[in-house]
Design brief:
Quinone Oxidoreductase, Chain A, domain 1; Rossmann fold; 7-stranded mixed sheet; 6-stranded parallel sheet; 11 helices; globular; ADH-like_N; NADPH:quinone oxidoreductase family protein; NAD(P)-bd_dom_sf; Quin_OxRdtase/zeta-crystal_CS
């Protein structure tokens, strides 16, 4: 097998494309022949040693991938060689093969494209858990999506629209705003050139958004929270801008608003039955055409450094997918 190996987590430039022994699955594991893998922001953090999870060295990065079951370890049931699957395993995806626990695999229904499947679990599960579980989003409510052109942002737009909400997408360029509106956003705000609070006031007739979905953090947090509606819910999804912000607690008091943490990975571990139901609904929505990953670009697996460069430059709209087929 071939894989991108991280032996020194100082950044993507230290990764090496190497030939390694093909692993054999242990008890409860499955070996997957990887067809496609997607790039998520934590993949960048983990090779920079900045992520909360720090794998033992050396390791193969790549949290999310899709492919075909190639071999079964002892005790694995419900899967067979040749089955199409997707996984969110934390590491191992930027390779031609990976061994993962069978419990981390999502069997793919017929017609689920491998490139879409590789870009599906993390962003759609996070956004569904955030909007429908943590925020209890209702039809007719208004959702503000920050960083709306990114992977989780584009998923959040689609899920909010599927739930019957009105969506305001906020992004950093006119091109990204246009992408969000093509996905179904009812309005967009380019926060790099307009005052976001003034724009939100105009777009909501002074009421403010009922739910704010924030994977960005940084200096957008306070102006966004100051714009929230009465009884609003502010979803803390991530910190793509790097800075973890602080908020004056009186803002929550004045708006009767809630600050809600979103950690889909922990939810999936603690509430596996609820997570399985959610993933089933998402797979059904994909089959119905209600959700579909936005693919920024599709590159060969050995072009991972170029993918990281594009992500670090904040150029990505949707997800970058790496495939072993080209």
């Amino acid at each position: 097998m071939h894989a991108w190996l991280c032996e020194n987590p100082i950044g993507p430039e230290a990764l090496a494309w190497k030939e390694l022994p093909t692993p054999e699955p242990g008890p409860g594991q499955v070996r997957v022949a990887i067809k496609a893998a997607s790039l998520n922001f934590p993949d960048l953090l983990i090779v920079q040693n900045k992520y909360q999870i720090k794998p033992s060295l050396p390791f193969v990065p790549g949290a999310e991938f899709a492919g075909v079951v190639e071999a079964l370890g002892e005790g694995v049931q419900g899967l067979k060689v040749g089955d199409p699957v997707a996984a969110f395993a934390g590491t191992g995806g930027f390779a031609t093969q990976a061994c993962v626990p069978a419990s981390q695999l999502m069997p793919l229904p017929p017609g689920f494209d491998f490139k879409d499947a590789a870009a599906f679990i993390c962003t759609y599960a996070t956004s569904h858990h955030a909007l429908l579980d943590r925020a209890s989003l209702q039809a007719g409510e208004t959702v503000l999506v920050l960083g709306a052109a990114g992977g989780v942002g584009t998923a959040a737009i689609q899920i909010a629209k599927a739930a019957g909400a009105r969506v305001i997408a906020a992004a950093s360029t006119d091109e990204k705003c246009a992408c969000c509106e093509r996905l179904g956003a009812d309005a967009s705000i380019n926060y790099s050139r307009v005052d976001m609070r003034a724009a939100l006031k105009a777009l909501t007739q002074g009421k403010g958004p009922d739910v704010i979905y924030d994977p960005v953090g940084g200096d957008l947090v306070e102006p966004a929270f100051r714009s929230i509606a009465w009884r609003g819910r502010y979803l803390v999804v991530g910190f793509a801008r790097g800075q973890i912000p602080a908020l004056p607690l009186n803002l929550m008091l004045l708006k009767g608003a809630s600050l809600v943490g979103v950690f889909w990975g922990e939810f999936a571990k603690r509430e596996p039955k609820a997570n399985a139901v959610m993933m089933g609904q998402l797979a059904q929505w994909y089959a119905q055409g209600k959700v579909k990953p936005v693919l920024d670009s599709v590159l060969a697996m050995n072009q991972l450094p170029a993918a990281f460069t594009r992500m670090a430059g904040r150029q990505v709209m949707g997800k970058i997918v790496l495939t072993t087929d080209i």
